[in-house]
Amino acid sequence: MVALLVGASAFAVKAQSPRLDPSFALTSAGSAQGAAFIGDMLLQPDGKIVVSGDFTSINGRPAPGVARLLPDGQVDTAFAAPPINGLVVALALQADGKLLVGGRFTTVGGQSRVGLARLLPTGALDPGFLPPYAGGPPPYAYTTVEKIVVQPGRGILLLGDLITGTSPVHFAARLLEATGARDATFRPGFNTFGCNDVLVLPSGGLVFSGAPRLLNGQPCTVWATLPDGALDPAFVPLPGPNAPAAAYGLARDPATGELYVIRDAPTGTLDREPLRLRPDGVPDPAFRIAGAFPQAFGGAMSLAVQPNGRLLMGGVFSVAGGGYYGSARLLRSGALDASYDPRLGPGSGVAKALVQPDGKLLFAGYFRQAGGFLLDGLARMLDPNVLLGARAPGPAAGAVEAWPVPAREALHLRLPAGRAARHLALLDALGRVVLRQAVPAGQGAPVLPVAGLAPGGYLLRVDFAEGAPAYRRVAVE
User: Fold this and answer.
1) Whole-number average pLDDT of the chain
2) Residue 133 has what pLDDT?
């Protein structure tokens, strides 16, 4: 749980958002222990929602810790997962529609699967996927998988623990997608103990957050690797204090390549704070939280970058005047977004926040109400300030000139005077960097070669030595 103390003055302009989506079936989840918990969820390309956690039924239908919902929130009866004898805490979707489930279990459908299994699109167990921990061979009495990500074309990356007696051994491993066999080409260039989160970059590289480990001679809490696990020399690891201070959730803005992370405050107290990193790992001084996070109770938050660049956060937040709530939102500057009132959102205890392509917000966790309605652990909210049209341009966005439009061989640029540009980057519609070029000192009119790029629209990003990047839409034919 992470506490955000929000003064009443933060909402001087009365916000009317978010509000509960009336078209979404209010999902009622139940468990053998009483209150249900939905700890992870993902969106399929067809709009369906897969959820996992500590529940045995959803809307009265049997669901052994994994279920798939239709876009309107109703249970998808075409998906039927087999019985799982433990908690499912991690989900990932392969490009072929098969679902990876990880957690603290030993059997799936009566078959030995220790901590990891794969389900077919129907929900049935995939018999051809046999990860190396499936039989629980000595000395591994138990395996728990806490995080799963898919590296397209490379494999399945896991974070978790191997249990030998009473001592957990943290691990990061990559498996082959076809069979689940261990991928011997993945060789982490770091101590995998204490990895808290990982995300995949468009290049196939990885960014990790976790407890401090010595990198380049100093303790660091955020670092990046090449696709094979070797440390990325172009990424500057984030220095961090000594243990037990650490970094937690990660999120990436696909439009800019910037990274967000939650970290323990450098003071060594229990305080935590969000931080924005440039694509090369250097902290962005333009992002200032201005004391919004004065106290933390422990645990990580879920982060999601909206298309308009605002940062949606899930966790436990304290609002002045009484009560605890599950979400909050920051502007690109790091200031609290006064148009988003956490008192109108989900209750305390959001474990995962997602933004749908249509701008609707999904929250999962152990909250019992949202928008004034009683419901169990899953809610969809509406908010007007989500989509790209609401993205505020950077302070120098209008000062970047580019011609011709459209460009064929080269794009000529004129950069704002008085700011030292460092790099130029072209991003495609998916936020992937397709072209990157350094800007020599003092060059205010660089030329960017675009011959060979696929015709279409791109986002030009100009990174400066100080301050926020500048952006401009360009076209190539």
Assistant:
1) 83
2) 63
Is 392's pLDDT higher than 60?
no
Beta-carbon count within 10 A of 425 CB: 20
Domain ranges of the chain: 2-390, 397-476
DSSP string, 246-285: -EEEEEE-TTT--EEEEEE-TTSSS-EEEEEE-TTS-B-T
DSSP state of 454: P
Q: What's the DSSP call for residue 336?
A: B
Q: Which two tokens stand for residue 419?
A: 């700011």
Sign of CA dihedral 221, 223, 228, 230: negative
Q: Say whether 397 sits in a helix, a strand or coil.
A: helix
% of the chain residues with pLDDT over 90 = 36
Predicted local distance difference test score (pLDDT) of residue 391: 56
pLDDT at 52 over 90: yes
Which residues does residue 459 pair with via DSSP β-bridges, in sequence order?
427, 473
Sorted by sequence, the CB contacts under 8 Å of residue 270 that are 6+ apart come out as: 264, 295, 296, 297, 298
Backbone angle region of 371, left / alpha / beta, with phi > 0 → left and psi within -120 to 50 → alpha: left
How many CB atoms within 10 Å of residue 255?
A: 18
pTM: 0.78
188/173 Cα distance (integer angstroms): 8
CATH number of 2-390: 2.130.10.10
Q: Please give the Cα distance from 209 to 272 (Å, whole number).
A: 14
Neighbours of 217 (CB within 10 A): 6
Residue 2 has pLDDT above 50, yes or no: no
Contact status, residue 366 vs residue 351, Cβ threshold 8 Å: yes
Cα angle, residue 423 at apex, residues 421 and 428 outer, rounded to 5°: 130
Burial of residue 60 (CB within 10 Å: 0-12, 13-18, 19+) is: exposed
Please give the pLDDT value at position 202.
87
- The topology under which CATH files domain 397-476 is Immunoglobulin-like (2.60.40)
Query: CA triplet 289, 293, 295: central angle to 5 degrees?
Result: 160
Whether 304 has a pLDDT exceeding 80, the answer reads yes
Q: What is the pLDDT of residue 281?
A: 93
